[in-house]
Write a structure and sequence with these properties.
Pfam families: G-alpha. GO terms for molecular function: G protein-coupled receptor binding; G-protein beta/gamma-subunit complex binding; GTP binding; GTPase activity; metal ion binding. Keywords: GTP-binding, Metal-binding, Nucleotide-binding, Signal, Transducer. The chain has 152 residues and is α/β, with parallel strands linked by helices. A 3-stranded parallel beta sheet has the order 1-2-3, with helices on both faces. The chain contains 5 helices and 3 strands, in the order H-E-H-E-H-H-E-H.
Amino acid sequence: MSGQWHGWRKWIHHVEGMKAVLFLVDLSRYDHDPEESSSNYIEDAIDMFDTVCNTGEFEGLSKIVFFDTDEFADKLTRAPLENYCPDYSGQTYDSACDYFLNRFLSVNRSESKIQIYTHFTSKMDMQQVKFMLSAIQDILLQIYLRELKLIT
């Protein structure tokens, strides 16, 4: 959806019949200089996720969020997160991951009981890529089994 996101109303009819939305976030882009573009990458991603969670067209779709951490840990040492996110007060990689996880989950105002699945992963690690694909298959299987009322 990147690059096409702001015109989402033009392609929204394609979500008909979908069961889930796969949402990818590159955490290492938290320091994306707002002067290079009109807004910050992470804030744009949070805004997009807000729309995905709280717009009627996406109601009933499970959300699967993958946080790409390939360069994130290394970047935290060079560009402290608190310089870009004044409300962040942690000191570790794990607290930074928790910070972004909570930022994304906090925008969900939907009263729907639809699950939001989250994973921190590296696209450079083939074992993690295999796990990610397996997790997607498992999530979709659970969605179908719930629809058939075979599980709760």
